[in-house]
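Margin note from the TA: students keep mixing up input and output lines. Inputs are the sequences; the output is the structure of the whole complex. Example:
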Amino acid sequence: MRPKLVLFGDSITEESFCDGGWGAALAHQFARSADVVLRGYSGYNTRWALRVAARAMEGAGDAPAAVTVFFGANDAALPDRSSWFQHVPLDEYQRNLRSIHSFLKERWPSAVVILITPPPIDEDGRLQYPYTDGPSGLPERTNESAGAFAKACVAVAKELGVPYIDLWTKMQQFPDWEKSFLRDGLHFTPRGNRVLFEEVVQALKGVGLSLESLPVDLPLFSDVDPKDPLKSFDN
Amino acid sequence: MRPKLVLFGDSITEESFCDGGWGAALAHQFARSADVVLRGYSGYNTRWALRVAARAMEGAGDAPAAVTVFFGANDAALPDRSSWFQHVPLDEYQRNLRSIHSFLKERWPSAVVILITPPPIDEDGRLQYPYTDGPSGLPERTNESAGAFAKACVAVAKELGVPYIDLWTKMQQFPDWEKSFLRDGLHFTPRGNRVLFEEVVQALKGVGLSLESLPVDLPLFSDVDPKDPLKSFDN
């Protein structure tokens, strides 16, 4: 039986099967060795995610091998700007991450929970693609706020001893990350998706889930003996 | 609980989560309303698929709402050319399709089985991208053979009274289908993937599985009341 990977997160998870998306890339990479289950909820913060976690995972089936938990981009929206009602205070964000982790581990003790920090924010991009009419001239998300949530996420991961991806830091190591990885200052371009895909592949590898280590589901065509193909499919 | 769509087929299914792939596009389309489960086995014909069907579906979980069965491109390989050992005679191909259908319906009586015919073959493309060294100057697959298998597939679908997608005929209704839809004479370009994606969406709609008819998994962000967000998540 193939192991399962569950992707739990906000819009950046929900849209991860778009062209060039990181979720689709994972499903492609593990096409013969794992099932990728999408549980992305656009606009959700950790407060809302915690409230719905049991319902979100209801139909996800047996214990997954790993779950990515990727929230914070909405929690980090500023409380006094247009996305104010998505904001969650930093200390509650940390508590919620711990609670989501506990929920997942109680349900599936063997599952590895991987925390992903919010990505950096390109404030210029956010002003160019505002969510509301008549932008105030101030972005509803800032890179500074995203960075504070990213650090808080990393701290929770270290405290819990679980793998994490510090996407906020990682992306900013590349030149022109603002336009090259973010199409609207927040959501990913195909190159941005690629960065996260590679980070998730690395994190999975770190917990023993890689193309090299996972068994292939049914014989590969290259292993089928042309002279006696059906023999390859004996149990 | 979200309904599940299982994609059972050969390489064109296995690679359906590549960039612009039809499987990824389905997962994206139904990101909030259905789970797409990939069961693609590169190189497999219906004889091999029938042999492994029980094992392939083992970890697929509860009854899916629909299963696409998309084989024939390998069955239709010519018996006297380089892919000879993938060939399956036309009447056995039909028997195998019936048996795969029976197997799926016995396992999951409520699942809708959708048969997909092999795509057309661009013989020039096959000669440009041969699978073996030193091409013989003759393609290992021909459009005529693929067409015979497509007709046979449609006949089985009509006999069983199940939905089908006559991809062989559909693709050839477009100008320049050879290069525009097929990247190596057999496998799909992004535009070819798009054609199949749209056909599958139509077929699913025909059996009541559409964005309009399927419930959304958890409240949409646009339905969350900014003044009392948590209220939206009450059961």
